[in-house]
Amino acid sequence: MKKTKIGVIGTGHLGRFHSKILSTLDIADLVGVYDIDSEKANAVGDEFGCRVIKDMDELLDACEAVVIASTTATHKDIALRAFDADCHVLVEKPIAESSEDGGLMVSRAETAGKVLMVGHVEHFNPAFGTAQRLLEKPSFVEGHRLTIYRGRGADVSVVHDLLIHDLELLLAVLDEEVVGLSASGSSVLTDSPDIANVRLEFTGGCVANITASRVSLSNMRKMRFFQQGAYIGVDFGGKVEVATLEGKGLTPPESAERFELPGGEIIARWFEEVPQGNALQIELEHFIDCINTEVEPLVSGKRGLEALRLADRIVAQIEGR
């Protein structure tokens, strides 16, 4: 089996997990890791038995592909160096610090003929994949993405750190343009918005109301989709709940709970079976598969840029720009 030679740039929280998984994949050869902080790089190298390379260009020259898990402000420069070194790139979200930088990355990837994929890992969450197969033109979406503040991701707003996950998922499900946007938010612990609530209207009529906070007392990652005759609730921790009006929505399994309404109609409720799987591993396997098959990633550079542009619009409205 051919192994793709791949390196990891940035060995912080996410870079460590990328390195851990890549060190175990049969389809990957983890050439090495690099971080400007040699202490972090050495810790990851020791933990997973991989080589620590002290010069980034040396790592790029030895690889076919790289994962960029460094701070957002560095994404563009590292990605361009990677393309110059003939490497494919998986870059953590958001794709870049600005839409201009993201656009340059997309353009350079196309010119170089290289895969550019953005690490919106929730797209590969088995719970979302299970729910996505049931979705048929949702008319309303509600989302809550709340987390306890831990300092990670604080170099960007909560919109670019957390809410952007749900923005990408909405763009994937609806594949429509946003024609209406209303946003509010507040800075609590950092200089940028830490809480945000957004109402989006899409060309097909769907309305999405999504909230993100990194100053919550508990964690929550849920989206609820409403469509003709049915409700699909996604808990990204691994559950998908479905309710449907029999005969007017989805076809329920025999095992579904059924409730008769006063008018005689039947509501069926059940939990879909969600396959086991590590979303980050699925993402990395998809990246490598796209390299080998020359297929565009599910979360391409263009999709990541679209999500970033929408996030920028939201933050601009919150900050009154």
Distance between the termini: 53 Å
CATH class of the largest domain: Alpha Beta
State the shape.
Answer: globular
CATH topology of the largest domain: Dihydrodipicolinate Reductase, domain 2
Topology as a string of helices (H) and strands (E): EHEHHEHEHEHEHEEEEEEEEHH
Q: How is the largest sheet built, in terms of strand order?
A: 7-8-9-6-10-11-12-14-13
Number of strands: 14
Strand content: 25-35%
What does this structure look like?
By secondary structure, the protein is α/β, with parallel strands linked by helices. The chain has two domains: 116 residues, NAD(P)-binding Rossmann-like Domain (Rossmann fold, 3-Layer(aba) Sandwich); 164 residues, Dihydrodipicolinate Reductase, domain 2 (2-Layer Sandwich), CATH 3.30.360. It contains nine helices and 14 strands. The strands form two sheets. The chain has a nine-stranded mixed β-sheet with strand order 7-8-9-6-10-11-12-14-13, covered by helices on one side. The protein has a five-stranded parallel β-sheet with strand order 2-1-3-4-5, with helices on both faces. A hairpin with an 8-residue loop joins strand 7 and strand 8. Helix 4 packs parallel to helix 5 and helix 5 runs antiparallel to helix 9. The longest helix has 18 residues.
List keywords for this structure.
single chain, 321 residues, alpha/beta, Rossmann fold, Dihydrodipicolinate Reductase, domain 2, 9-stranded mixed β-sheet, 5-stranded parallel β-sheet, 9 helices, 14 strands, 28% strand
